Amino acid sequence: MGEQTEREQATIAETRQAVAREPEKVGPRLSLAKALRDAGDVVGALEQFVAVLARDPANVDALEGAAECAAALGDAERADGFRRVLAALRAQAGGDHPPRHAGATAESSGTDKETREEPPGDRVAQSGVGFLRKPRLRLVTRGDPFEAGAEHPAVTLADVAGMDAVKRRLNVAFLAPMRDQRLRKAYAKSLRGGLLLYGPPGCGKTFIARATAGELGARFVSIGLSDVLDMWLGESERKLHELFQTARKNAPVVLFFDELDAIGQKRTHLRHHAGRTVVNQLLAELDGVDHDNEGIFVLGATNHPWDVDAALLRPGRFDRMLLVLPPDERAREAILRSCFEGRPTEGLDFPRIAARTQGFSGADLVHLCETAAENAMEASAASGVLRPISSQDVQRALTEVRPSTRPWFDTAKNYALFANESGVYDELLAYMQANKMV
After folding, report:
1. 85: closest CA among 64, 113, 112, 54?
2. What angle do CA 117, 120, 122 make, to 5 degrees?
3. Where in the chain is the domain with CATH 3.40.50.300?
4. Mean pLDDT across the chain, nearest whole number?
């Protein structure tokens, strides 16, 4: 992301204040999402659009913005999920008008489909203005969604730079007893459980979840808001139940809930009964009252742990919260070397660059590398002679790329200082004090 103009910064700061004053209102948060998008902060904008959808699942502007941002980030599957919900809303409200993003609807996907007739009025859909009656014709997609979304990651924890505390906790909670049955039996260690990763965006929460599955040789299933959210009453709960049921049959499995604050938001913050029942269903599945969750390890990631329902954080569900911080200097150097590997370079002082990128997330470092490569490519195109990426290109990139984590710490500071009675944010507070953020 390039440097924001003063006007954009002022607009964003003003809308952030409005959100802080009235965090449950959709309007200010939607304005913040649009301001971030217009300023080029696609990651931040997507986060805010998703937060709007958690409060108002049928908000068309938020669905459009979320689809646009997800597509811009290269997450085509997630963008398609938002667009399908949007298409269904438009069809219901406007008499089957085609969606704005035509090529992304279910009709244009390559899946095997059939159309079946259902009795009118058997279910209703919740919208921003009430409940919508379900149409008579419903599109049904054949195939196992678990199989479609499952993967066997090739990366392992050895590929993760830094994050030693997170790796240790993962090893104690799941990896060691999984590998050594003798230890597991001796200490009666269960293979069920959960872990919530939280921290600023772009710091590798998703990557370490994927690496955990790769370490196990287990299936990894990433579950986002679009995989659960459905406009028809009761469908979201059914989707959650089917995901866990299939995971139980295919254990060992790592289920990864991205943006857990959107799916498992505090029920006191939810305006609609439908949103509260989704949280209730998730609680029931994690408890496994009627089923055995042995071999199912649940990882969650969130940028806003303070918005997650407290019931999800008790032992037996998401047992522990672990802070995923921006990479330290050693990890930043490793990330930079990996990013520049395979590109023509000359005279790059990686330790020096790492020392100058304090506070950069992993995503920021990748963006820095891409920007430096673009600078060299631009000069090569102008001269007609291919030249390697130099320290001057990186220096120029450092003037354009800024760390994206600071706004998150500005928000997190209030919780670390004034909402930390249980000590859950002690690690965050210690980091901020060490880096003179408080």
Report:
1. 64
2. 100
3. 147-323
4. 79
Domain spanning 147-323: CATH superfamily:
P-loop containing nucleotide triphosphate hydrolases (3.40.50.300)
For the purposes of burial, counting CB atoms within 10 Å of the CB of 160, is it exposed (0-12), middle (13-18) or buried (19 or more)? buried
Distance CA 215, CA 35 (A): 40
What's the start-to-end Cα distance of the chain, in Å? Answer: 26
Express each pLDDT in 207-236 by its tens digit.
888 888 788 777 788 887 778 877 777 788
Domain covering 329-400 in this structure, CATH number: 1.10.8.60
Question: Residue 295: what residue type?
Answer: G
* 3 state SS for 75-102: CHHHHHHHHHHHHHHHHHHHCCCCCCCH
In the chain, where does the domain assigned CATH 1.25.40.10 lie? Answer: 1-95
Q: Does domain 1-95 have CATH number 1.25.40.10?
A: yes
Other C-beta atoms closer than 10 Å to the C-beta of 438 total 13
pTM of this prediction? 0.64
With a cut of 50, which residues of the chain have pLDDT below it? 1-2, 95-145, 148
For residue 118, what pLDDT is reported?
40
C-alpha 337, offset from chain centre: 25
For tokens 């390697």, the residue is 388
Question: Which residue spans within 32-191 are E strands per DSSP?
Answer: 113-117, 124-127, 130-133, 137-141, 150-151
